[in-house]
Structure formats: C-alpha cells, structure tokens
Amino acid sequence: MVKRALTNAELPAEPINAETVWAIVCHRSKSGLEPIRAGRHRGTVPYGMVWDVKAVTVIGGGLGGLAAAITAAEAGASVTLHEAHSTLGGRWRTTPVRRKDQRVYRAHEGPHVIYRDGPIWAWLKERRLLGVTCRVPLSAIARFRFWHEGQVRRVPPVGFLRAVRLSGRRDVPIDQSFRAWTSRLVGDEAAEMGASASGVGLFHHDPGSLSAAFVAERLSRVYSLPPAASYRQGSWGAMFDEIGAYARRLGVTIELGSRVSAVGDGITIVATELESARALLGDDSLDWPSGRAALLDLGVKRDRRDLFVVSDLDNCGWMENFTVPDPTIAPPGEHLVQMQMPIDAQASKADGVARLEAIADQALPGWRERTTHRLESLANARTGAVDLPGTSWRDRPAIDRGDGVYLVGDRVAASGLLSEVSLNSGVRAAQLALA
After folding, report:
1. Domain housing 44
2. What DSSP string describes 364-424?
3. Phi, psi (5° rounding) for residue 125?
4. For the chain, what is the radius of gyration of the CA atoms?
5. At 36, is the pLDDT very low, low, confident or very high (cuts 50, 70, 90)?
6. Which tens digit of pLDDT belongs to each residue from 222-258?
7. Are residues 263 and 348 in the same domain?
8. For the CA atoms of 68, 70, 73, 77, what is the dihedral angle to 10 degrees?
9. In this structure, are 195 and 307 located in the same domain?
10. Strand pairing of 95-98 and 104-107?
11. Rounded to whole angstroms, how far apart are CA atoms 81 and 57?
C-alpha cells in the first residue's frame, strides 16, 4: 500500500531569498499548465508563511508515467514515481542482446520511431531531451519496397497511391469502416491495399474494419513525404536515462523495483498496462480493443542487397532495417531488422512468423545463412488502442477516474498515434490532477 496525502510544507524560521524562489517559479511555469503566479513582492519571504504542496504518486515508469511525473513536478507538485521494473522506459525499453563476443544488438518491443510532426518530438525538444537523432537517408528511399500478391515490388500499385491520397482528406467519417468508405470512392482493391499499408501504425490484422477516420489519420502520417519518422542514435531506450535524470532534477523521487499492489489516499496517476490498471483499481470497465501481432527480430551479416523497408499490402505486415538510419544499434558489419505481422485471435505466433519469413526471403537474400541473432515474440493487447466505427479516442476509458485517481496509457481517452496517446494522456492527467 502506498499512501499519499496533501502535504503542508512549512518554511523554516530563517528567511529565504525570494530571488531564488522567483527563478524556480519561472522555470516551473514552462510546463504547459497554467503558470504559477508569483506575487509582486520581491524581497524576503515573510517569516511563518506556509505553502501548500500537492503530493502526487505515479505508478508506472514508461513514457506516459514519466510525462505525468514531469508535468506535475514542473507545476510545483511533490512527485513520487514507482516502477516495478529495474529500469525506466516501459515498451520503449531497449533490450540489449549480448553475444559471446560481447557485441550488442539494441532493439525494442516492435519497431519504434518518433514522428517529427507529433507531440512526443515537440515535448522532448522543448526539454532538450531529443539527443542525437537520425532521419531516413535519401539513399534509403531507393530500398523501400512493397509486398503485393506475394512479391516484393519496387513501384507501388496505383490503387495504393489513391488510398493514401484519400486518407489526407478532412471529411473522413468516424461512423463508417475504412473498407466501406474507401471502397465506395476508389474501389475494393485500393481499399484493401490502403488498409493493409496502415498496419504499421495499428498492429491490427483487419484495419479495414476499423473507423475510417482512425485508419486514415495513421495512413496519411506514416506515408507522408518527406518521411517524418526519426530515430534516436543508439536506440530510444537510451533516452529514458536522460528523461529520468531530468525528472530527478525537478525533484521527482523515482523508486525502481517498486511494485504497488493497492491505491491509497491522495492524488494517484496509474500509468500501467490497461489490464494491470483494471486489476489495481478493481474496475472491470477498463477495457478497449487493441491489436495482436507476431514480432520477428533478425540480426544478419550485411549484404548490399538488403532492403530498408517492405510494406506488406497483402497482410498488414512491415519489415524495417533499423541499421540503415542508425548503424550503432548492431555490431559492425551487421544489420538489425525488426518485423511485425498482425494476426487474428485464431492464428498462432508461428503463423505470423512464417509470413514474415516469406517476406525476408525476398527482402534479405540468403538471410538464413547470414543470421547472427533471432528473436520471436507475440505482442497481445500491447500495441495501442484501435477504434471501431462510431467511436473515437474520446470514447475510450476516461483519464479522470474520480476520487483523485487518473489513468494514463495508450488505450485511454487521448489523441495521437500509438505511444503519442501515452504521452498526451500523461500530460493531461497531471493537468487535471493539479487543476
């Protein structure tokens, strides 16, 4: 049980220098919340003056939890963050895979990028936490391919291009499926290719059945030109050490290896998987559809014929060679390729991996003989929210759960693409908590 309460912090009897206080107040007013207003008096703070400092507990040290903790701390709250794992980062946590020769691959749970037109980029940039980032090299564009009718193709089908162009419209309906809406305008074949191409931003086996507005937004962002995707040099996981250090400088207490089993009194921000939040809060209403995908990571000795990206227009899959923009995440002379294949509830991980291997056969010639690292996994309900026709992000589980409890994650009522939902919900939870 972790108990939290409103803390009344009484100033010491000795007067303090208000110039220092003024600097702190001005710094914390940059959080995006309503700024803390300082009085006109700029001398010493009178003896006996008492400030009320709100105490906030954050459960979960992923992107959403850290965003909530930092936003609250920037606004002047006393924040304690509990993370059950030994490191911060959640699903952005980097998994270094060491071989006997001590060379390391740095991979994530599924392909990870940050879009420069999105809120994560802006939030990190404002706090100087982006670090060294890598863009898609111009030379990589020539190694971008499309999987269509069982073959890797250099030129995308015309129907796919029509679907992508259509996805940029402002009048895309919420209450129709992407398949029904797109088929009516550009035909069934183009609709299916557009739906499958959006799989990289959905991790869902049947995007055509989802809300047209939901799918179109993701399709248009993933295939924007020039590409908006960016990569953190050395992996995004390294960034969380810097985010954690930034939070600590703001006064956030971070407790690693700290598993919270119950919620006590005071302001609590729950930034865990939705299933964990449901058990922690005893609230069966905390549920929302998500995706299911087979994941395959391959480390291979480099070959100049290896492709950068293959977008699967048949089955929603995706292959990306992450060492093309950032060679530092694999041993010298090797490529790290991460692949995903959305599958339905009846399909097995092996079914999805078999489809990915068929793509690899053409995208990475002779990859089996060149493989130095292989990891298979299954991501189930760990790929963000998906919205059915007639629903939007506003219909997902509310952030404000009442009684001082707030919910953060990638399947709650906040906008954005994949992990952008976590960040937006974390910032919003802190704002609501301190309002």
Report:
1. 7-90+238-288+391-434
2. STTHHHHEEEEEEEEEEEEEEE---TT--GGGSPPSEEETTEEE-STTSS--SSTHHHHHH
3. -65, -40
4. 23
5. very low
6. 998 888 889 988 888 778 889 999 999 999 999 999 9
7. no
8. 10
9. yes
10. antiparallel
11. 6
Q: With respect to residue 2, please indicate whether it lies within any of the assigned structural domains.
A: no
Q: Give the predicted TM-score (pTM) of the model.
A: 0.84
Claim to verify: residue 108 and residue 181 sit in the same structural domain? yes
Report whether 98 contacts 307 (CB < 8 A): no
* Residues 124 and 266 both lie in one domain: no
Question: What is each CA distance from 304 to 11, 301, 307, 319, in whole angstroms?
Answer: 66, 10, 8, 17
On whether residue 1 sits in a domain, the answer given is: no
**For residues 220-253, b (16+ Cβ closer than 10 Å) or e, as one string?**
bbbbeeebbbbbbbbbbbbbbeebbebbeebebe
Q: Which two tokens stand for residue 362?
A: 């053409």
pLDDT of residue 31: 38
On whether both 183 and 328 belong to a single domain, the answer is yes
CA distance 361 to 344: 23
Cα 387 from Cα 392, distance rounded (Å)? 6
* Dist CA 54 CA 266 (whole Å): 9
More confident residue, 41 or 314: 314
What's the angle, vertex CA 66, arms to CA 65 and CA 68, rounded to 5? 65
- Is a pLDDT exceeding 60 seen at residue 96? yes
- Residue predicted with more confidence, 336 or 112: 336
Cα(408)–Cα(399) distance, integer angstroms: 6
* Claim to verify: residue 398 and residue 335 sit in the same structural domain: no
pLDDT for position 98: 58
What is the DSSP secondary structure assignment for residue 144, as one 8-state letter?
E
In total, how many domains does the chain have? Answer: 2
The answer to whether residues 248 and 349 belong to one domain is: no
Domain match, 118 and 161 both:
yes
Angle at 243 between CA 238 and CA 249, to 5 degrees: 135
